[in-house]
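Trying the structure run again after the queue cleared.
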Amino acid sequence: PFKLSIYATSAAREASNTAELDAMIQKKTGVKLNIISWREEARLSLQGAKLSTGDIGSMILLDIGGGSTEYILSPGEILGDMGEKPASAHGTNLGVVRLAETYITKNPVDQWEYVHMVKEIKATVDEAFKRLGANGDETLVGTAGTVTSLAAIAMELDEYDPEKIKNYKLTYNMVESMRKKFSAMTCKERENVKYLAGGREDLIIPGIAIILATMERAGANHLLVSDYGLREGLVLDLINERVND
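Done. Tokens:
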């Protein structure tokens, strides 16, 4: 039989009225809202991403979101049906929505606004890597909308194709080139770029800045793109839960 499950991440973790949201959802659906902690979000994102990457040895997963960005180090402890507990993980407040609202008031982008934003991003990324305890030889993997959108743009895809996105190598030079191109555009002009319309036109700049800062900190000239992430990891958990019931 059909079973409805409802989950939320960073926005609901940080909002002051989450209880009210939960009450509204329960009234409409009869289902309680499940708030995923950032540690659980990291585990699920890793579980989903590995469906795309397979076993590639040591990796750092970069999961960019609207309200937070997670860094996850793998391999870690295998938990059977629960997938893998990351070797370490660090959640940051580098959400593209917050960064865009805090720093980017002009489009085309004002250089000083971008520099101030990057200063915060680099300091936060540096702290994340220190907490991860990475040794420097990990493969950098990226998941979620910013990364997959940039890959689709770089590949000039007419239609989004997850199989072509899967394990695509997005290079530093590609991302830097898109930074320059999109920074020179107004938001209206970005709406005409396939895969940027529909709300990503203003968020792509902080997303790009996070990717570039992460590549620089990791000493990586590219990252592997995973079309799978949190959503797929969550689905796997729900499937395993039903199978074991």
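The beta strands are 6-8, 33-35, 59-64, 69-74, 77-78, 84-85, 88-92, 139-143, 169-171, 222-226. Worth checking whether this holds up in the mutant runs.
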